[in-house]
Design a protein that fits this description.
Strand content: under 5%
Helix content: 55-70%
Largest sheet: none
Radius of gyration: 16 Å
Order of helices and strands: HHHHHHHH
Mean pLDDT: 96
Low-confidence stretches: none
Bound molecules: protoporphyrin IX containing FE
Length: 181
């Protein structure tokens, strides 16, 4: 594990435990809960992807277009009859170190998605949670983040952005869980 990865993981582990516990409370055998989980993820994911687009995430990792999952989550929501509100991102353009933190959280969340998708009934739309990714793409991203965040102050910026990104998932998850429980 690179030192940057270790720092990002340690500094966000409390936030990860909270989202893990929160999203574990959606009953994925119930269609309303599954739809609510996807709606919550969309509410968090779409604005962050929009920020990464605006900030030029391709300069950090050229395969950014293949990593995006906005279209997949919108397709699932459409199939479930849900139209999410447009992503609000304001006018800010994130700096590269902040984008590194965002990418860490969005790409890391695929790892949990792989576990969650096993609980989703076979015939339901699951382009988002099941979206395939070759296994080399996670370590490749971590290596890029390690060279980008060469200075401790840059790592701090990434950690703050990563925790804010987790915060978006936590806030959206709590709101949507409240609607179905
Ligand atoms: C019930 C929901 C979730 C479960 C069960 C879960 C589970 C996991 C597991 C088992 C891993 C480690 C996988 C591995 O090392 O191969 C992981 C990693 C990770 N997850 Fe989650 N996760 C959940 C939700 C989320 C969400 C909503 C996010 C972000 C929004 C997230 C972000 C991450 C990140 C960033 C990592 C990488 C940690 C690292 O190795 O540095 N997870 N998750």
């Amino acid at each position: 594990m690179t030192p940057t990865h270790r720092r990002l993981r340690e500094a966000t582990s409390a936030a990860h435990e909270r989202v893990d516990a929160l999203f574990g409370r959606f009953d994925l055998q119930r269609r309303a809960d599954y739809a609510a989980l996807l709606a919550a993820h969309a509410e968090a994911l779409l604005p962050v992807e929009a920020l990464l687009d605006r900030g030029g995430a391709e300069a950090l990792t050229a395969d950014w277009p293949q990593r995006r999952r906005g279209d997949e989550i919108l397709a699932d929501l459409d199939a479930l009859g849900i139209t999410p509100a447009p992503a609000e991102t304001g006018d800010s353009v994130p700096e590269p170190a902040a984008m590194a933190g965002m990418l860490y959280v969005l790409e890391g969340s695929r790892l949990g998605g792989r576990f969650l998708v096993r609980s989703v009934p076979e015939h339901w739309p699951k382009a988002y949670l099941a979206s395939p990714q070759p296994s080399h793409m996670w370590p490749e991203l971590l290596a890029k983040l390690d060279s980008l965040l060469y200075d401790p102050t840059l790592v701090d910026v990434a950690v703050t952005a990563a925790n804010q990104t987790f915060g978006r998932f936590e806030a959206a998850g709590a709101r949507w869980l409240g609607k179905v429980s």
